[in-house]
């Protein structure tokens, strides 16, 4: 090869390496700036509300007096709504992803469904609130209840769970399926015993993202009629008589943490802003707690799998 061509080749390689290094540096800088800003805002909120994060803050109902106001009804309502959301969205989303990826025929109808599911992941949350208001509250007559709120948020995160499940299953190599079929396993046995254990860690990532989004949503919850001030708790899901479970709490009125925060920041007194900062810190803690549980489960599942 002539010397001139070698010089051109080296020049092109050096230029590409320089561009790659510059792009990597730019990306790392942007990420660092975003993390610093987010961490700064979070720490500022935590320091502002730290004085109100006491046991009484968790065990007191909202009050017109900022010093006596608490988040008991808000955090209980958030936990119950998220419980309904998880119980509705995770099984349905995972089952839908398995069907679309493993059982559905690869034709124009499957492509149409895939496009629509992907597009639904970007629909504004207020649209889901309007849909839930017409379907769950008026048509199915579920009322302005915890059940309606949980199903609304389940619809909101369902596309994320479906897309993540499909991508996780698609990442499993076909050689694993072929080895299972060669040993005489059926399609469902292959999915249940091999595909899901290897892909469930990635599926949990989608569940984490969905639940983290749902726990902070306000617009769809307000649309279906969540209360901004509530001084009572739903009935307990447990009872002393057989069958020891009660589902009356599903029909109870509710409020959630984001709505409680919105109620406090809309008040003119500065003391309520401190309460809102404390509630925001607790909400972030709840989100991180959900993420920590999911990450722990994902780690345990991956540790038990033999590659």
From TrEMBL:
It is a multi-pass membrane protein. Pfam families: BPD_transp_1. One of its GO terms (biological process) is phosphate ion transmembrane transport. The chain crosses the membrane at residues 23-43, 72-100, 120-138, 145-165, 219-238, 274-297. This is Phosphate transport system permease protein PstA. It comes from the Bacteria. GO terms for cellular component: plasma membrane. It comes from Waterburya agarophytonicola KI4. CDD domains: TM_PBP2. It is found in: Cell membrane. One of its GO terms (molecular function) is phosphate transmembrane transporter activity. Keywords: Cell membrane, Membrane, Transmembrane, Transmembrane helix, Transport. NCBIfam families: 3a0107s02c. Its main location: membrane. Belongs to the binding-protein-dependent transport system permease family. CysTW subfamily. InterPro entries: MetI-like, MetI-like_sf, Phosphate_PstA. Residues 75-294 form the ABC transmembrane type-1 domain.
